[in-house]
Amino acid sequence: MVSEIHCDSLWYGADIVTMRDGKYHLIQQGAMAVTEGKIVWIGPYRELPAINATREVVYQGGLITPGFIDCHTHLVFGGDRSAEFEQRLNGVSYAEIAAKGGGIVSTVNATRSTSEQLLLEQALFRLKPLLAEGVTCIEIKSGYGLDLESEMKMLRVARKLGELLPVTVKTTCLAAHALPPEFAGRPDDYIDFVCHTIIPQVAAEGLADAIDAFCEHLAFSPAQVERVFLAAQQVGLPVKLHAEQLSSLHGSTLAAHYHALSADHLEYATEADVEAMGEAGTVAVMLPGAYYLLRETQCPPIELFRQYKVPMALASDANPGTSPALSLRLMLNMACTLFRMTPEEALAGVTCHAARALGLHETQGTLETGKLANWVHWPLSRPAELAYWLGGQLPASVVFQGETRP
Ligand SMILES: [Zn+2]
């Protein structure tokens, strides 16, 4: 008796980069069988067992990678800061721009005064190019509302994006992003408000999958961040942290202590920080877009991440101030060029390790039996090309949960 596998669909005709354990693990002339949106068999086509598929899709060559995961974005916001960008390049100083209500405050004001519907339309405009180049899962943070209603509005918009388009959206409450103007000079009072009002309310309404904060001299201290982490623990949500972007406060060690899913930026992380992250299994999220736009020169400690086996993820950090990035593939090139990550590490950063940074590594990020059938078919012959080409649109076709995305 030959046992036959029954499946919804069978896909073959291309090479498959599985990214299992963060490595290419290339299968030449691969095949995948899919049932109910999940991979039930994957391997070389010549080893395909007896199979009965309702539908067959044959690719004419090319390369398949796992769907891209953008694990750190601020995609929902009102207004944009292109006018400031231009002013600065015309010689207007940061101080002058800030004195006129520019910087993050301008985004907070614009986000508060923009309707939910308009925020949604503007975010859709930014999300579509990311999807076109293979994103199947994206994290979106709040953090430009900084009051209860506006933070919830941002998170509802993020959730709605995932209902409108074939993409998984994970939401993160970043109420502890900056000090709102009405709390000027009273950061501890604002942190009280975040811990006692915003986080419990956002959790009660199921609007956030994680809690994040910005640990920096111009934002919140480690002691304030720790109170945010305790509030997150109370409502049973995992934490993430913007840490060591501009200076060393050992926020990443604190994040590791609270078993954070990730610590992000990390240009100024020390060996002790990296060691703590390695022990806790906290992912290091690299954000070369912000590094580039700020003309930062301190590189994140890539060699230490390798040494302490800290998984490195890579994200767009799409935001109106420091990284107006609408291409995750461009970040692959920047991670290699600016940070000297290898093309394989960069690809793992937007697949396998990005999934871990969102707590989704059991279900996505690699192409393996039991994982979601989320992948991108590229007209390329080598995976390094994904990090090699600078810009340009690759006509990729994307499969989301077993169906080719329109
Ligand atoms: Zn960020």
TrEMBL record:
Keyword Protein biosynthesis on entry: no
UniProt binding sites for Fe(3+): H72, H74, H242, D317
Residues reported in the UniProt entry to bind 4-imidazolone-5-propanoate: R81, Y144, H177, Q245, T322
EC category: hydrolase
InterPro entries membership: Amidohydro-rel, HutI, Metal-dep_hydrolase_composite, Metal_Hydrolase
Domain Amidohydrolase-related: 64-402
Cofactor, free-text remark: Binds 1 zinc or iron ion per subunit.
Pathway recorded for this protein: Amino-acid degradation; L-histidine degradation into L-glutamate; N-formimidoyl-L-glutamate from L-histidine: step 3/3
Keywords, alphabetical: Cytoplasm, Histidine metabolism, Hydrolase, Iron, Metal-binding, Zinc
Enzyme Commission number: 3.5.2.7
Positions with a binding annotation for Zn(2+): H72, H74, H242, D317
Binding locations of N-formimidoyl-L-glutamate: Y144, N319, G321
Cofactors that this protein relies on: Zn(2+); Fe(3+)
NCBIfam families, per the entry: hutI (TIGR01224)
Family of the protein in this entry: Belongs to the metallo-dependent hydrolases superfamily. HutI family.
HAMAP family on file: HutI
Protein name: Imidazolonepropionase
Organism name: Yersinia massiliensis
UniProt gene name: hutI
